[in-house]
Amino acid sequence: MSAKPEPGVGSGNAHPRTRGRRLVVDGLLAIVLTAAVVVGLSVASTFWTDALRLAEGAAEEAAEQPFYTLPATVDPAAPGTVLRSEPIGSAPPGTLAWRVLYHSTDVLGDDIVVSGLVITPDGDPPAGGWPVVSWAHPTTGTAIRCAPSVGLDPFDLVEGLKELTDAGYAVAATDYSGLGVDGPDSYLIGVTEGNNVLDAVRAARGIPDARVGTELVLWGHSQGGQAALFAAQQAAAYAPELQLKAVAVAAPATDLAALLKADIGDISGVTIGSYAFTAYASVYGPSTPGASLDTILTPAAAAAAPSMNELCLLGQNSQLHEIGAPLVGDYLSGDPSTTQPWADLLAANTPGSGGAALPVPLFVAQGDVDQLVHPDITAAFVKSQAEAGTTVTSYTIEGTGHGTVALRAVPKLMEWLGSLGLPH
């Protein structure tokens, strides 16, 4: 599920970085030097700080390919074990940050390597280390280069980052499996995403200078809402050393069959369907009879899926529309809510489908004019969670669509954290 386009994320620039990117770096550095003259070298200037961060980010992006290149052989390790980390010089003011590659586990139980970010306040943590928010990002795409940690400003999609770090939280931000580094598909595959979200916290704790503790809040938007909810469901069994305190979601992907059915009549639904059905066919297909694209998509849609999955949602919308628009109205060959094995696969990846209450308080924000994650579907999820016994706080953000709901929910989120006795 998507968010508003943000600069520097999902740009579609393939590795390796080209000579043209070096020119961008040089140009940005020139802008910074010019700005320094204009403002009299005032490091207090917001423009200076932002321009310098952008130049540093461009320089880092130009040289980051080796960081994301996996060794020829990677030995299995405990989930959350850090394979590689490096400081990020363009961290936002008042913070420290690292890129990280770490071990996790996918839905099939296999050891995988995942990339992500770790951001902490630049100061002394409380006794026991910084409490941590594990951020689960909205849809950026499914190709390796669509990872949020790749780009001029890898912090751009972390909604509420400043408020959270100012309040004294560290933030762990997974890319999910298959983004950033090679790995199995994870799009809307709840167990894989949830494990990635939890193991990002373990990885953060594995960076000595980050000084991250065990108190955990989960926070996710759209696709990331589904990931955060699965992480909450799995935390006690999968990562019992972490002290889960709360889970917060904005416009979460909950009833997957209902969402796909509601969205499939426009280009957004076709794009999400391409990402999701391809991921499911790749992961479940080898062991699940009938889980191939030709059992749920029209021949034209199945033929277009590989090309659509090479494109990032943020930055390559025009190309996605060019391929996907002719498929609107001629995409599905059956109803995924009733066609097997797709109905069972979608149900298995729908958070809360088992009917159990979440073990911690739940915050849900929903935009009232969201046309991608429809308000009635989120309302049904909130109702089902309350009936199951979860302590739910739900907000409708008026005049708000899908892309901006998480940002607009941040003030309410911080208030809610404070009401639970957590930093705010």
UniProtKB/TrEMBL annotation:
InterPro entries: AB_hydrolase_fold, Lipase_secreted
Entry keyword annotation includes Repressor: no
Keyword terms, alphabetized: Membrane, Transmembrane, Transmembrane helix
TM stretches of this protein: 23-48
Superkingdom of this protein's organism: Bacteria
Family matches, as PANTHER family: LIPASE 5, PTHR34853
Record's protein name: Lipase family protein
